[in-house]
Amino acid sequence: MSDRALAVVRAGALTTVQDLGRPGHAHLGVPRSGALDGPAADLANRLTGNPPGAAVLETTVNGCAVRPRSTVTVAVAGAPCRVTVDGRPVAWGAPVRVPAGALLDVGPAVSGLRSYVGVSGGIAVEPVLGSRSTDLLSGLGPPPLTDGTVLPLGRPTGVHARVDVAPQPAPPAELVLRVTLGPRHGWFTPEAVHTFVSRPYRVSPASNRIGLRTEGAALERARPGELPSEGMVLGAVQVPPDGRPVVFLADHPTTGGYPVIAVVRAADLAAAAQAVPGTPVRFVAVRRR
Amino acid sequence: MKVLPVGEDALLVEVSSGDEAQALHAELLRRRAEGSLSAREIVPAARTVLLDGLDRPRRVAAELTAAELPPAPPRARAVVELPVRYDGPDLADVAAHWGVPEREVARIHAGTEFRVAFCGFAPGFGYLTGLPPRYDVPRRATPRTAVPAGSVALAGPYTGVYPRSSPGGWQLIGTTDAVLWDHARVPAALLSPGTRVRFVPVEPVGQP
């Protein structure tokens, strides 16, 4: 392998390669996948001079550590964390030069869940159906990082941004998700629909890249049974038999049989990606634009 | 035909049968190909077609509500033949549900022309229709934790082939060596919505 590569020293709890995902293949049962916090991944790329579709690393909870074989520019965005190069603190949310052979350590998230590590040139693993994203539901794309993995890097194409620290939204203390009702809110009692948009929920620790699970009041169905399988969209709020809403995130299944009570606005899903278990969640009904 | 808005830029079009859903899917693909419909995803399912990533969802909804559904398109596509051994562990249970001897299951199944109604569950997993309703079977009461890749299976009105090993509750009637999904191949999926399929026994059906 050439020296355009990154050796994984500490993979962390769950670190995956992510880009814009592989939309357009849902009819084959292929999830869209892609970075959960899209704006953060985009910022990591802009800071390092990469085009928007370049692949970055998405960490979960406790970061990761990597050693580039050649000198690169990196930027860490998303969940705030301590970033060091060979033990010396460097900026989070800004371009940082990492010399060949130095150790870049992305520390545990101080708040939020997922940090994004952009590297000049981008992670250049072989794309699958046009994307380098790891899809945890279907197993497409590269497997999650393990200690010792060596990832190829692409050739840098741009010049990194000249900023000290880029402004980023703080991870949410309360997750407010704007929803439009339907298509299957008629499958729930009017009281359940009212409960859904008025009572507080909490982020469940069982959440993952497939869905943000919630804890709170169970939503009562007006009619029993399952729907014949139907297509699912990103942000769909599906209600399984336990009555607790699940918000579909990037690795969601393309079809499903549990009724979708509402759909979360796409712009609110980045915050959902950063909401730690226990975070209060409010679903707020809004009119369709 | 009922058009339900889904979020900000998607529509779920609901029809009354699987055949209508397949016809609608074919018509929507035709419109996208000719440029009169702009949709990122067109996802057929059992009784619906989902249109996702629409530029003008309200306008598309109005057009669809006003539209007559054209008849199902002619079956112009070639038949994909899947070699199969009818050796699944649930063959006896399926025979009991159907009220026929075991070897009749193979004869009936191999004598049916299937069509991929839709895909889902896993990349390359098709929900195949074609068996008459009297051959519907329930899912297994206890799903298996690992169903081997290539398993040919039945559930409800559908036949499916597991593209890779995964948990599953379908009734296993046979196995195939066909590669349902290979992302290095073009196209990656052997079966896509609308594909016609026949199961061809590797060994003559009805041998002792």
Automatic annotation (TrEMBL), chain A:
The keyword ATP-binding applies. Keywords: ATP-binding, Hydrolase, Nucleotide-binding. Gene3D superfamilies: Cyclophilin-like. It comes from the Bacteria. GO terms for molecular function: ATP binding; hydrolase activity. Coiled coil: none annotated. Residues 27-289 form the Carboxyltransferase domain. PANTHER family: 5-OXOPROLINASE SUBUNIT C (PTHR43309:SF3). This is Carboxyltransferase domain-containing protein. It comes from Streptomyces afghaniensis 772.
Automatic annotation (TrEMBL), chain B:
One of its GO terms (molecular function) is hydrolase activity. Residues 1-191 form the Carboxyltransferase domain. Keywords: ATP-binding, Hydrolase, Nucleotide-binding. It comes from the Bacteria. InterPro entries: CT_C_D (IPR003833), Cyclophilin-like_dom_sf (IPR029000), PxpB (IPR010016). Gene3D superfamilies: 3.30.1360.40, Cyclophilin-like. It holds the Pfam family CT_C_D. This is Carboxyltransferase domain-containing protein. It comes from Streptomyces afghaniensis 772. The lineage of its organism: Bacteria, Bacillati, Actinomycetota, Actinomycetes, Kitasatosporales.
